[in-house]
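[Discussion] Sanity-checking designs against the backbone

I'm trying to build intuition for which residues belong where. Below is a structure token string of 350 positions. I'd appreciate it if someone posts a full sequence so I can compare it with mine line by line.
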């Protein structure tokens, strides 16, 4: 019986990384661009037989060499990754997998949250994780109404007058607006700051309930796409999966309208909006796109604000953001975030 050695694969280990990429390619997947930790099972000749990785609280890029399947290697890899995450204090784990491999992860205790048939399944390691999240959303909703209930999901990196306009216009079209702020902390502006600036930037508006998305809605930039074939499939799959999750939230909160800003710049967001337009109305949720707020004939965007900060033009962002956002970036507290933006590469996301 072959004995295997479990060992971390570090980015500077060129031999192991080459084997990793070869194994993933052989099994029809590409290495994800977002990985914190990667492990491999090697045979006695240091040949890679199985691998798996983590990013934050998600398990990713799991594969077994087809010549070694049936030996229980993936079970060993996943068990190790779970133990590694637990050792870091990360107890709530998530994964995205092909529909064909979902039964395997179910046998390890993972529970399905949502799926896009024939493409992707979203799972977590807690039976009551998503239901507990829905219960928390209900508890946060202290305002009650029998009229139209709406929702919008924003990243607000950072919160601009364009976001404020979207919220104002959405609020005119419903009696209660659930505003979800993407909790994933991979943006240049940290989540705790983004969430605070959203609430401060919406000051004076009534009938808004602010929610965190936790791990149930993530950005397209970190959606695991390594097992999907092309960019359009990735975007559509993420959009459809996000809708499948959102529809369960909508049912719990009585939401019948979802709002989003029109997208003149980002092809990804534009395609995502198209997916919502195609799938939400048949499920009983109206989808309404709000035209972008403009300044001097140009739409206000968070990307433009980040670009001005990167160029050191803090004064230039003043007419584009609420006073609370301006105060943050012009303060000592916001100096670190401004420095992070200045040092970043591309701050314009398409």
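Best answer:
Here's mine. Compare freely.
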């Amino acid at each position: 019986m072959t004995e295997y050695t479990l060992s971390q694969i570090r980015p500077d280990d060129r031999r192991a990384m080459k084997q990793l990429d070869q194994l993933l390619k052989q099994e029809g997947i590409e290495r994800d661009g977002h990985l914190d930790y990667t492990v491999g099972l090697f045979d006695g000749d240091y040949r890679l037989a199985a691998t798996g990785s983590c990013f934050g609280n998600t398990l990713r890029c799991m594969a077994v060499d087809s010549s070694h399947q049936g030996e229980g290697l993936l079970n060993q890899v996943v068990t190790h990754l779970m133990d590694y995450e637990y050792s870091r204090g990360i107890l709530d784990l998530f994964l995205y997998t092909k529909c064909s491999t979902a039964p395997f992860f179910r046998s390890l205790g993972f529970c399905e949250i949502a799926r896009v048939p024939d493409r992707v399944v979203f799972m977590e390691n807690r039976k009551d994780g998503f239901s507990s999240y829905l219960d928390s959303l209900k508890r946060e909703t202290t305002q009650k109404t029998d009229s139209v209930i709406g929702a919008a999901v924003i990243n607000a990196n950072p919160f601009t007058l364009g976001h404020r306009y979207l919220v104002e216009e959405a609020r005119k079209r419903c009696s209660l607006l659930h505003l979800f702020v993407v909790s994933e902390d991979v943006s240049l502006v940290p989540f705790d700051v983004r969430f605070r600036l959203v609430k401060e930037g919406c000051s004076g508006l009534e009938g808004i309930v602010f929610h965190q998305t936790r791990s149930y809605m993530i950005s397209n930039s970190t959606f695991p796409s390594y097992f999907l074939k092309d960019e359009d499939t990735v975007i559509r799959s993420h959009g459809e999966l996000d809708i499948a999750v959102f529809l369960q939230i909508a049912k719990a909160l009585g939401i019948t309208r979802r709002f989003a800003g029109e997208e003149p710049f980002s092809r990804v967001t534009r395609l995502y909006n198209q997916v919502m337009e195609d799938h939400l109305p048949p499920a009983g949720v109206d989808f309404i796109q709000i035209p972008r707020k403009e300044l001097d004939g140009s739409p206000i965007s968070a990307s433009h604000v980040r670009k001005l900060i990167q160029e050191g033009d803090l004064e230039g962002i003043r007419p584009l953001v609420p006073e609370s956002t301006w105060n943050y970036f012009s303060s000592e507290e916001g100096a670190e975030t401004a420095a992070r933006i200045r040092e970043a590469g591309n701050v314009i996301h398409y």
